[in-house]
Amino acid sequence: MLSILNALPAQAGSQRSRLPGWLAHRFGPWLLLLALFGLFSLGIRLALLLKTGAQAEPTPLHLLQIFLLGSYFDLAAASYLFLPLALWLFALPDRLYRWPPLRWLWLAGFALWLFLLLFSAAAEWTFWEEFGSRFNFIAVDYLLYTHEVIGNIRESYPVGAILAGLATAALLISLALRHAWWASLQAPSHYRGRAPWLLVLCALPLLSFYTVDARQKALSDNRYVNALSGNGVYEFFAAAYNNELDYPSFYRTLPLDQAFARLRRQLPTPHSPLASTNPHDLTRLVAYPEPEQHLNVVLISVESLSADFMARFGNTQGLTPNLDSLARQGLLFTRLYANGTRTVRGLESLALSVPPTPGQSIVKRPQHAGLFSLGQVFASKGYAARYLYGGYGYFDNMNAFFSANGYQVVDRSAIPAVRIHHENIWGVADEDLFSQALDEADAAYQAGKPSFMHIMTTSNHRPFTYPDGRIDIPSHSGRAGGVKYSDWAIGDFIARARQKPWFDDTVFLIVADHCASSAGKSDLPLNRYHIPALIYSPKHVAPAEFDRLASQMDLAPTLLGLLRFRYTSRFLGYDLFDLQPGRERAFIGTYQDLGFLRGERLVKLDARHGAQLLKPNEQDGSAQPAPPDPELLADAISWYQATAWAYGHGGLRWQGG
């Protein structure tokens, strides 16, 4: 049998004349993989373009950028990806390289490479479906949580069938191209002849490192065009390399004293003046004439709850009947914008009341402990302050962050098995998390302590599974079911809480952590940051709508303002009811682009020291250039620059409230 297998390449020799000459060379396999990589990259780029459709505005100029610049990034990615193969091809002695039994190991290696390329293409497709982007910082971040992420994929897709299909395709392609792969075995090679090839193939990644930058693809005003111009493999490693961004190194700055002076002028409100004359101090003294109200507080951050899921904002599917009802009975914020596009950004904003930081969220940074937080303020007032999460809190560093900033963490491990009606890879069903929350509130009430709970839901997340019979949309059928079930669980929680003796003295704040989708026509599509927030407390908050521009980071000080708390604040958000009209602003951002919204203009700061003034469209997410405004630009820079400096120099740390 072995003799037959060994004879196959010899038979292939008769086809040698039909094979291109560049394959009959020691580095022929490298060139073959480069060609296949370019072909696969072109295929996934074309598939994503067709999927995106008209949103990519496929003009001739856009198509030229997508495919020409895309090839440039493909080559850069291949230079890194295939460097180990180049080293192996150079190092292997000629006699061993041409040893007949080794050719089958070579073919197996070829099949494995093909499988990985196909797998990468399939992964890019699913990532684009979820985020409307090539691989980015989120993909890198998810690698740290393989249990949850792989579990989510297994529960969302027929993974076994997909992997089997990819493996079969890789095997068939490798067999079809076996003669091309084996062609290099026919050509004797010496180290002297291989050395120039190695120098070139080693120089390519070095050249790419110094001359190719993922930001070079940002040539168009259309974000989809820029994303399609990239290469997923290259984007992945570029995001891993740039996971933290030092503000002064990457962004537009002012002289530091000027940045602080501007921010110090923007921070005070009538009941929160600056605490000192120190030019680098952002601390304020918050005091109201009325007595403090030590009411219980339940803050529910709802996974991926875009504003446009609610009827109040135009939805006609009837997905949020309970939230719509609570909005009519409570205080609804109609122009509130999330800080970011991930849960950690929402948690950062709600707990710390800071603008979005470039790069990694503070929640996941090493210097995340001992900060001025909402939990610390409540704990200083004698509250039982807790963070409740239906999954395991090691995910996204939640346990470490919240426990180091004044909260007691209650996660999946604290929820008794007998109580769980359903769970998936992200955690227990929202209704089971709320049952645990009721127990926690009861315990605080019995101990005679006011209660503050921040509850983070998980059910409105792929794979969108939940207990049967709760709503009229079957489990595991998509986003609409996830939204409607989360709404049902919140309504059920409020109904059960209404029976409790502590209900009348409780304030409920319900807000999204971020929108369901972050993709849009521009880099910072405003419609993909619009989230709902409502405060419900029938005995203490009258029904109303707050229609002024507001930021997610304003909710913590606004909540404390409703309670008339006196405290020394290092929050950078406003009590919205203590803010003079005309001073409203909001912050939106990705891990690289930072946005500052005031009035009808958006300042976008990017990591190339760039700045743009835009007029955003709140309906479709597009943005048009706006006339220059040096004062608005300087104000935007001052918020981000001074915040970054304060965080790095202890200016946002807890000092006793």
TrEMBL record:
Topology in the lipid bilayer: Multi-pass membrane protein
Transmembrane segments: 27-50, 70-92, 104-128, 161-183, 195-212
InterPro entries membership: Alkaline_phosphatase_core_sf (IPR017850), OpgB/LTA_synthase_biosynth (IPR050448), Sulfatase_N (IPR000917)
Name of the protein in its database record: Phosphoglycerol transferase MdoB
Pfam family, one: Sulfatase
Main location: membrane
Record GO terms (molecular function): transferase activity
The Sulfatase N-terminal domain, residue ranges: 296-563
Compartments reported by the entry: Cell membrane
Domain of life: Bacteria
CDD domains xref list: LTA_synthase
Keyword Membrane in annotation: yes
UniProt keyword list: Cell membrane, Membrane, Transferase, Transmembrane, Transmembrane helix
SUPFAM superfamilies per UniProt: Alkaline phosphatase-like
GO CC field: plasma membrane
